[in-house]
Amino acid sequence: MENMLFIFNIVLTIFFTIASTGFYVLYRKNSKKEFLFIPLLFILMIIENSIVYLSEFSQSFEQLYETSDILYFIIYLTFFGIVFTSRLIVSETFQDKFTNREKQIAIALPLVLGILSFILPFQISELLIYASFYGALAYIALRVYKNIKNTPIEYSEIVMKYYRLFILLAVILCIIGIGESASYFLSYSDALTLETTALSLEYRNIAFDIIKLMICILGMVQLKYSFDNLFDNSDANKPSIDDKLRDFCMTYDLTNRQREIVELVIEGLSNKEIGEKLHIAEGTVKVHVYNVFKKVDITSRNQLIKKIMY
Fold it and tell me: Where is the domain boundary, 187, 218, 234?
């Protein structure tokens, strides 16, 4: 068991390091912000993975883990960084801007959890932190799923099925992670920790370990895909999204207002968000969308996006 955990930590660290280096090279090549945020996410994963490893295999570090408030602060800051950086990646990849509510929660929740950590017993406050962490990861996974459904599809249908499966599994693992944390802290409060075993799992979250492995796999797949696109000269001859949209609007004789709305639909905005952006009523947006659907002879946004992109 000890050897397996040792190998698992080393392999994850190696692949996270390779992926972070590769994405940074991509960022230097084309300056896409998502290629800067992905290495940052992987670096945070390496930090979290290293803390877990040292806590399990280093007796002196284990004692520091049990007694140092600063170390706990670093761990919680790492969790916050993982969540925040993941949301930044979603924002840049899908042009899915932070909502006002997300900004408010990103400021208020850490402050509330920090205050509660001084008021509540340690076990309860840490459980709330872990529950918030897993809840945030589940929210981001669902946000990715929403964007995949509402934005132009760049991958084959088979690849998209695997992505949807990974998202579903991530949400399930987040739910399991909350239960795992609750179970551990309940046993901790009852003094049921396995102190007699050669290697205790009290510092390791199995659900998050699987999530890290999934992120590692997705990162390597995305890295390969991005490098293939980077060196695929045939992409230079492909029409841009703007060209496709222009041809689409000319083909179906769309008005300027309809074109504006279709462009925002491609970006994944809802009718309400489109209305706010264009300063028109949500009902007016619905009428324009309906008229576009009627002209093109389609019934959904996904069909509209596919019509434009392919």
Answer: 234
- Percent of the chain exceeding pLDDT 90 equals 31
What domain range is 9 assigned to?
2-234
Question: Which pLDDT tens digit goes with each residue over 176-229?
Answer: 999 888 887 776 655 444 443 333 455 678 889 899 999 999 888 888 888 877
Measured between its terminal Cα atoms, the distance across the chain in Å is: 50
> Global pTM?
0.71
Q: What is the largest CA-CA distance in the chain?
A: 75
Question: Which residue bears the tokens 């952006």?
Answer: 277
Where is the domain boundary, 183, 199, 234?
234
- Given a contact cutoff of 8 angstroms between Cβ atoms, the answer to whether 255 and 289 are in contact is no
